[in-house]
Specification:
Elements lengths: L3 E5 H4 L3 H9 L3 E6 L2 E6 L2 H16 L11 H5 L4 H13 L5 H8 L3 H11 L10 H18 L10
Parallel strand pairs: 1-2
Antiparallel strand pairs: 2-3
Helix pairs in contact: 3-5, 5-6, 6-7, 6-8
Length: about 160
C-alpha cells in the first residue's frame, strides 16, 4: 500500500471524505497548490506517535526503565498526548517492549509495529531479560485472545 497520496488543493473539498478515509487507513495526504506542497493530513495516532518521539528526543522525558510503565501511572494522565508521550518515551528508552507499548496504547501489536515502520520509529527487537520474554508472551496471548472469537476461532472481518 502506498503511504502517501497527493491531493490538489482544488480537489480537497470534492474529495474530503475519500481523503479522510485513506488517512484513517494510514496514508498521509499531501495537499498541493500549483504543484507545491502546502500541508499534510495524517492519522491522529500517527501524529501523536511522531510528536511523542520528537518531544522525547528534544526534552528527554524522564523514565525509569527498570520500573516499567504501569496502567495506573497512565490513568493519572488526562491528556491523550501525554499518555502517548509516556509510552513512547519508555519504549524508546527500552523500559517497555513493543508489545507492552501496544497494549498501553490500546492498539494491536501488529498495528503499532506497522505504524512504527511507516513512521521510521525504531523497532527494538528482542527482550534482554527472561521477565521481558514473559511480558512479550503475555502481550501476544492477550492479543490472540482478543483477535479470536468466543469459540476460540479467528473472527471474520
Amino acid at each position: 500500500m502506498e503511504y502517501q497520496q497527493i491531493v490538489p488543493k482544488t480537489d480537497l473539498a470534492r474529495k474530503t471524505r475519500q481523503v479522510l478515509q485513506a488517512v484513517q487507513r494510514g496514508q498521509t495526504a499531501i495537499i498541493e497548490s500549483h504543484g507545491h506542497p502546502e500541508a499534510a493530513i495524517l492519522n491522529i495516532e500517527d501524529y501523536r506517535i511522531l510528536r511523542a518521539g520528537m518531544r522525547h528526543h528534544a526534552h528527554k522525558i524522564a523514565v525509569d526503565p527498570e520500573a516499567g510503565l504501569s496502567e495506573a501511572a497512565l490513568a493519572e494522565l488526562e491528556d491523550p498526548q501525554d499518555k502517548v508521550d509516556q509510552v513512547i518515551a519508555y519504549y524508546l528508552d527500552e523500559g517497555i517492549s513493543l508489545g507492552r507499548a501496544a497494549e498501553l496504547l490500546g492498539l494491536p501489536w501488529l498495528d503499532l509495529r506497522t505504524r512504527f515502520l511507516r513512521l521510521d520509529v525504531p523497532i527494538l527487537v528482542g527482550p534482554d531479560q527472561p521477565d521481558e520474554v514473559l511480558d512479550e508472551i503475555r502481550a501476544i496471548k492477550r492479543w490472540e485472545s482478543e483477535a479470536a472469537g468466543s469459540d476460540g476461532h479467528p473472527r471474520k472481518a
